[in-house]
Amino acid sequence: MGGHRAEYAREHAQAAALQRQYRHLIVYYGEATQSFWAITSTGLVEGRDIDALLLALWPRIQGSVVRGGFQRQVAGGAGVVAAA
């Protein structure tokens, strides 16, 4: 049990990219549910794909982006992750 299966490598990479971009969240891909998950200060958020998760998280992440290891506010709320 445990670990990442090779067939879900792309999904795990997408979750890791989102985690790097928004370090105040914990983001992962659940192989059993085949959903993306984020742990926020208010609880769990689920998305059937990375886009659905980003849409659900938008109120929590707009204007917040990590650059050079530090989180900072971005004018206009631009804080979008390009999926790998």
Mean pLDDT score, rounded?
Answer: 79
Strand content: 25-35%
Please tell me how large the radius of gyration is.
13 Å
Distance between the termini: 26 Å
Shape: globular
The arrangement of helices and strands along the chain is HEEEHEE
User: Major β-sheet, in short?
Assistant: 3 strands, antiparallel
Q: State the helicity in percent bands.
A: 25-40%
The count of domains is 1
Which spans have pLDDT < 50 for at least 5 consecutive residues? 68-84
Biggest sheet: strand arrangement: 1-2-3
Number of strands: 5
**Helical/strand content category:** alpha+beta
How many helices? The count is: 2
Write the topology of this structure.
Layout: H1 9-21, E1 26-30, E2 35-40, E3 43-47, H2 50-61, E4 64-67, E5 70-73
Antiparallel strand pairs: 1-2, 2-3, 4-5
Q: What is shown here, in short?
A:
The chain has 84 residues and is α+β, with helices and mostly antiparallel strands.
Structure write-up:
The chain is of the alpha+beta class and 84 residues long. The protein has one domain (6-77). The protein has helices at residues 9-21, 50-61; strands at 26-30, 35-40, 43-47, 64-67, 70-73. Helix content is 30%, strand content 29%. The strands form two sheets. It has a three-stranded antiparallel beta sheet with strand order 1-2-3, with helices on one face. Strands 4-5 form a two-stranded antiparallel ribbon.
